[in-house]
Automatic annotation (TrEMBL):
<keyword id="KW-0812">Transmembrane</keyword>
<dbReference type="GO" id="GO:0000139">
    <property type="term" value="C:Golgi membrane"/>
</dbReference>
<dbReference type="Pfam" id="PF08571">
    <property type="entry name" value="Yos1"/>
</dbReference>
<comment type="similarity">
    <text>Belongs to the YOS1 family.</text>
</comment>
<keyword id="KW-0472">Membrane</keyword>
<keyword id="KW-0732">Signal</keyword>
<dbReference type="GO" id="GO:0006888">
    <property type="term" value="P:endoplasmic reticulum to Golgi vesicle-mediated transport"/>
</dbReference>
<feature type="signal peptide">
    <location>
        <begin position="1"/>
        <end position="20"/>
    </location>
</feature>
<keyword id="KW-1133">Transmembrane helix</keyword>
<dbReference type="GO" id="GO:0015031">
    <property type="term" value="P:protein transport"/>
</dbReference>
<protein>
    <recommendedName>
        <fullName>Immediate early response 3-interacting protein 1</fullName>
    </recommendedName>
</protein>
<dbReference type="InterPro" id="IPR013880">
    <property type="entry name" value="Yos1"/>
</dbReference>
<dbReference type="GO" id="GO:0030134">
    <property type="term" value="C:COPII-coated ER to Golgi transport vesicle"/>
</dbReference>
<keyword id="KW-0653">Protein transport</keyword>
<keyword id="KW-0813">Transport</keyword>
<dbReference type="GO" id="GO:0005789">
    <property type="term" value="C:endoplasmic reticulum membrane"/>
</dbReference>
Length: 103
């Protein structure tokens, strides 16, 4: 199989398919990547902005590395599962049709 843009597109679609089918209760809860954990982190201790708090000395924002990564990963997986569902179905149908036509 030749390395082409279509192969890269297939790879990206397969990765998004994997994100879309992750079960939050089975797989993501043990890593703390569910929306319940995200809501718990954002409501505790005045933590409003995911991953950032105001640095009083310099007036800029400094990242809180552990919470920032978990918050961003949680929001990314949530967005993949919920907002990307219908476009992902369309792209999957397109790839299936191309594979059937081209062999």
């Amino acid at each position: 199989m030749a390395f082409s843009l279509f192969a890269i597109l297939e790879c990206v679609v397969l990765i998004f398919n994997a994100f879309a089918v992750l079960n939050p209760d089975r797989f993501l809860r043990k890593f703390g990547l569910t929306m319940d954990d995200f809501n718990k982190n954002t409501s505790a201790g005045g933590y409003q902005n995911p991953g950032y708090e105001m640095n009083q000395n310099y007036g800029n924002q400094a990242p809180q590395s552990a919470l920032a990564f978990k918050s961003q990963a949680t929001l990314f997986l949530y967005a993949c599962r919920n907002y990307g569902k219908w476009p992902l179905i369309g792209v999957n149908l397109f790839i299936i049709a191309i594979e059937l036509l081209m062999g």
